Automatic annotation (TrEMBL):
One of its GO terms (molecular function) is carboxy-lyase activity. The keyword Lyase applies. Keywords: Lyase. PANTHER family: 2-AMINO-3-CARBOXYLMUCONATE-6-SEMIALDEHYDE DECARBOXYLASE, ISO-OROTATE DECARBOXYLASE (EUROFUNG). Residues 3-327 form the Amidohydrolase-related domain. GO terms for cellular component: cytoplasm. It comes from Nocardiopsis sinuspersici. This is 4-oxalomesaconate hydratase.
Amino acid sequence: MIIDCHGHFTTAPDALGQWRQAQIAALDGGPEPGELHIGDDELREAIEGNQLSLMDQRGIDLTVFSPRASFMAHHIGDEATSARWARICNDLIARVAELFPERFAPAAMLPQSPGADPAGCLPELRRAVEELGAVAVNLNPDPSGGLWDSPPITDRSWYPVYEAMCEYDIPAMVHVSTSVNPAFHTTGSHYLNADTAAFMQLVQGDLFADFPDLRLVIPHGGGAAPYHWGRFRGLAMALGRPELEKHVLGNVFFDTCVYHQPGIDLLLDVVPHENVLFASEMIGAVRDIDPRTGHHFDDTGRYIRRADLPDTAREAIWEGNARRVYPRLDARLKRQGR
């Protein structure tokens, strides 16, 4: 199988965005969840002509699917605002997975809010796993939207979330949302900054001593981490931390949302293949065709096929690593006879 561990519902029907705008316009009240009306046929149309069509063209068997990252927008409103929005978005993802059970597995957003106790996310996290069948969650290290005023992800305030993740044996993808800071372009700067910042926070901290079974996926190829691996190794030494392979790589994984061959080659040369999961994040931040190759930038499968890898490593990146890092996905596939 080829499993894409990083997909977002970027083509949701317009009604979802309209509901959100109504919520934002009336943060002290706003529309009720029952006022959102999206039929199954609308969902099929939104998926079949977009993600599913490209998956078929590119040979992708299944995508771990979550709400649109830029729509999470945790900086808007308060905890109640985010809780209601997360519930609606997670329900919609679960419906897509029900309509296409062999092509999509649901991952949930958390109802984070700036300054709020992360433990407030637990009811939605539990509902997403127990009722919706979520195989992962997205964790935003900066719910402020580019102001970076939250504690690092190693802070003990996060521990209730990590305890629940370990209880359910699910990973989190560390993924920010929209930037409201004009100095940080959302997808070109803020996303990659966050990947790098999260990795450095993990280097500085000792999170996995307390949670040896916790698994975190850093998207977009890990931001600057692979490119500056020597810097991070040197900083780890200066901080009195063990080598990165021992300190973080037992628990931290990188996806392949890197949109050119040299970038993928560097990632695979620096990071052990056991820590790399195939992903494309289509239809996402980079949607155009590269005029140098004639192929979409986000057709990352082409780069994996052309990489200098033994077959066993390539198969692990395609499938084996995802099934290991996402045990609930593995169980879902086994129930389907795959």
